[in-house]
Amino acid sequence: MPSLRSRLFAFVLRHRHLLRFQLQERAWDFNTSIPDFRRQCEEFHRVFGKLFGKRIDGIKISPAAVAGLPAEWLIPDGAAKDKVILYAIGGAYVSGSCQDHRRIVSKIAKGSGVSVLLVEHRLAPEHPFPAALDDMVTAYRWLLAEGILPSNIMIVGESAGGGLCLATLLALRDQGIPLPEAAVALSPWTDLNQTGESHRTNADVCLSPKRMAHVCSKYYAGDNDPCLPWISPLYGDLYGLPPILIQVGGDETLLDDSTRFAAKAKAAGVNVTLNVGEGMWHCFALMPSFIPECRQAMDEICSFIKTYVIK
């Protein structure tokens, strides 16, 4: 059973629309303002960032330009220079920046002791597929060109970034580029066609706005088939991928995106670890550590990273 703290926190998040003086969360449509949504994301992390990540102690923040892409290094004290986490920023492919991810992602850097490279991939609808994927592949190739060995790189991402993390693995493999040592996908969006049953069964308990996935899928896929494996990795041939840790909340619409991908990957011989958090919400591992389920999930992530990258 979920802890009391997690249930109370979920209650607060479920009623966050009241902070915007709205009686209920508005369902998305194609008139929903993407610039407004991006501003809301920035404001959300500005208000709650300290709660999620507390203070960023022992982390050096270094701006960077990675092959022309805005980027940022989060470097923990004592981190080895030759070991890197390449992080795929989430935000339904339409939002996400170093600024609104810095504090929560720093928890992974600090807990694992591995430097994180945050890269701001291009966003839809201005830049639909394959822009975000191309940017991730470019960033990975840049790390290789900098002398970082594939065995010392892990790709991590949440939400759309989790799906992008997995799609990047497929693209690297298909292009004959050496794969990273392992990957972590938090609540990954693996099926932009939204065929999973949880998109319906969890619609009333999921914290994500209704129809947001439908709108953002159209924006990202553009004129392409959303079932293309590099868009929706669930539909890919998953042979030859490195070990993957997948975490997902039991109460989110993307539950089946994780469970179905994990089952298919395992059937293809991939070493997959799947953790479904009972009663948990989207990307719960990144939430405050005073919630025991979130703390345990973050500990699992950092332990997984140390196993494969620190060795």
TrEMBL record:
Gene3D superfamilies, per the entry: alpha/beta hydrolase
Domain of life according to the entry: Bacteria
Keywords for the protein's UniProt record, in alphabetical order: Hydrolase
Gene Ontology molecular functions: hydrolase activity
Domain Alpha/beta hydrolase fold-3: 85-285
InterPro entries: AB_hydrolase_3, AB_hydrolase_fold, GDXG_lipolytic_enzyme
Protein name as annotated: Alpha/beta hydrolase fold-3
Organism: Lucifera butyrica
